[in-house]
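Side project, low priority. Logging it here so it doesn't get lost.
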Amino acid sequence: MRLEHGIIRPELSDDIYPLDNSIRNKPKAPRPIALYLPKVPEFNLRDSNLSPDFVESMKTFYDMYQKSAGYKKVDGIISIDTSPLLHTIDILGGEIEVNGVRFTTKTDPRCDCPQVIYQLEIAADKPAGFVKENRKGLIGDLMIAIMNKAFSSSPKLYWGPLFQAMITDTTEKHILFSLFNQDAQSGIEALNAAGRIVAFDGDYLHINEANFGGAKSNLFIKETVSQNYDIKSDGSIEKTIVVNYKNPNPPSDCNLEHGNLCLNAVLRDWVRVYVP
């Protein structure tokens, strides 16, 4: 994506695997990957976001990205999950059409998840008896359709709600920024929008999770966190944290030979808990 003189222009949407496959002489997999994913001997670009600090992860990512055949100089990296997509489509009327395919945020009974997520997963990840060229190119087409609908309308119709949704999604860490211009990055970090792990004077809890080959099971996991404080007679405080995971949905058939879409696989979750 290119932002120039206030105008946003989509540049390219592609799969990370061609970039990964073009990198020569990859280093050995770091200890967490070697330990929990023993069949992955190398450190891949797609696994480089191991640090709980987003900016540190992106430094590792960019160092590796520069060694790929598809490297293009950029001014920063923005990470976006599916929540902004859903919020944006909702604001734009609840549906978007791309190349004759209709995308909505309504729940699809085939997955008990938003229909747009299911359709994108079919395009990108459903096994097929042929090679899918640019299997994630549809994401770029969807982005262009969303921008066209938003910017071709009256500003008072969509722009205000879209801007507010962006602020909310950034606050909730659905959007993270790592910019290479230090002044710009300082502003981002002042807004707490860079996913930094920083020193803190006082009680602190950060639960960091990484899906290690569990498909899209995070879509279905219901996670709760409870904290209990026990003040002792000597004035010391003991804190107990309980993280509860529940998956109420049936598992997907992830047998590749059956050719089904594997979404709700076993959650292989690397959990790190940071406290003072």
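Brief comment: The mean pLDDT is 90.
Revisit when time allows.
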